[in-house]
Amino acid sequence: MRPSRLLAALLGALLLTGCSGLSGGGPVQPGLDVSAPIAPQIGLVYPGPDARETQQGIVSGFLRAGASSDGKYDNARKFLTSRMAERWQPDETIVLLSGNESPTTRLLDPATVQVTAPVAGTVDADGRYTAARPGSSASARFSLTSVGGQWRIDGMPEGFGRWIAADDVPRLVQPFAVHYVSASHRATVPDVRWFPLDRLLTRLANAQLAPVPDHLLGAATTAVPAGARLLGDAVSIDASGVVSVNLIASRLAPGDTTRENIWAQFLTTLTQDPTVTAVTLQIDGVPVDLDGVEGPVSSLERIGFPPESDTATTAPVVRRGATVAVFDPTGSVRQKGASVGPSAYPDVPADFTRLALSADGAETAAVDPSGDGLSRWRGTNRYEVPPFGADVGAPAYDRRGFLWAGAVGSGDARLFTVDTRVSPADLVAARAQPVEASWLAGRRVVEARVAADGDRVVVLSTRPDGRDVRLDLAGVVRGGGQRPERLSAPLRLGTWVTRASGLTWVDAQQVATVASVGGAAVRPVLVSVDASVSPLPEAAGARAVATVGVERDLYLVTRENRLLSRSGLRWVDSGQASDLAAPAG
């Protein structure tokens, strides 16, 4: 997905939820189309304190002035004593409120004011979003003192940044991806965080200087020299939209590949800003030259990276009873370009569950009736995967030829892959191999879905008794022959998701599942890799989810084996189905 399209998609999810927490009330709204233009930012500056303001008015005014969009917050600092004005860091913990009402203020004593407001989530200084429990509130106490006969704030909670009302969030802070380079193929890998929009390009460039985050470590690398910093702590952009990045750094590692990689990282990250047309890159004032490339760079293709493709060409399949057939939805939701794969598939008996479809359409897989085994179908033949564990989870293929499934194996093994590039009749080469992930020890993997890029996986797991549901994003560390060897450390998504079932990637930045969030009724939800959660229209009895395109092409399978399709703000019955399986990614 192109960076500008990524931003539009993420902004659409943001607007859907009113600051990305799951709202318990109000109508559910569809997200923006991923090709929608980014709305221009509107600058607002709030006034400083009035000389006659009360203690509560001073605190309320300070919170309101923190929603200014000039990036300097000079008027907000006027509500503080000179000592506190120097110490306050607006980019520390940012609280995203779930409504637009002014926070409630209470005077605890003449010098102490407490404020409270419903909260959707917080963004820390590194841009990591953490969702709050639905319905919860944030509270903070401020100490005040009299300065020249006027009240001023002289104390606030450690790490306090700003409180931002729901309607102000799109204007002040949004999710963007910082990009690294895949360790296993020629592509960039995104890490989505939240950034204030003032000085956005400088913020993104500074974030690009950081090491690979733990949840991508081993799956991605960075070509940015350790300890690098921006000259003047800023980047510049000219009238034509060309951004100039000048780094102060130790010597860049040798080789054309390293130079191409550092270009790819800055180019992909900075061009998320729709005002950017191209990038120039220097280290210690010396241009980072590439053979055959002159002037500012505007596309990855110019620096040797192949064009991205996150669209599968294999048509999905639907199972009704034992019959597996190419899925041919009526109307305009038919997957464009779906041409690869056989026109007919073998039957899969109804007592085999959780049907999966390979990326090339050459085979299907399902969990055996006992729940302790896995079978694959090629042509008219069924092949049993040699036993590898009990309580096998839903299988899923990736685009590099591996079949993934969770199971309770020997020791701490909980996740396995099968190399589908070899003959399934070869009981040695086609046996399941464990994927090292120590953080899954003692848990049951319900489902693991690999992104289209093959570098990231989202894992749905529980304790053996089904409690403590977790959704985790991790990097896939591959060895020889692209075999998945281990997962990076997990980044938890959808903190308050419980009772989840079904999992599918909707696009490069979000997955869909059917879950309860914070104890609310079970419903389909979108979970972004930035950790925010967006509700979808309710659907009684839904147990599985699949997509044949984008978010608007989502389908649900119910406990009564009915297929539900998306129609605006509701789901409509589209006939019988016990499974709908889309190709990998």
Output the CATH topology of the largest domain.
Neuraminidase
Proportion in helices: 10-25%
What is the molecular shape?
A: globular
Note the total helix count: 7
The named CATH superfamily of the largest domain? TolB, C-terminal domain
Structural features:
single chain; 585 residues; mainly beta; Nuclear Transport Factor 2, Chain: A; Neuraminidase; 3 domains; seven-stranded mixed β-sheet; five-stranded mixed β-sheet; globular; disordered N terminus
Please provide a written account of the structure.
The chain has 585 residues and is mainly beta. The chain folds into three domains: 41-164, Nuclear Transport Factor 2, Chain: A (Roll); 173-303, no CATH class; 317-581, 6 Propeller (Neuraminidase). Helix content is 11%, strand content 37%. The protein contains seven helices and 39 strands. The strands form nine sheets. Strands 1, 2, 3, 4, 5, 6 and 7 form a seven-stranded mixed beta sheet that branches. Strands 11, 12, 13, 14 and 15 form a five-stranded mixed beta sheet that branches. β36 (554-558) and β37 form a beta hairpin. α6 packs antiparallel against α7 (256-270). The longest helix has 15 residues, at 3-17. The protein is globular. The two termini are 13 Å apart. The relative contact order is 0.11. Mean pLDDT is 89; it is low at 1-40 and 331-339.
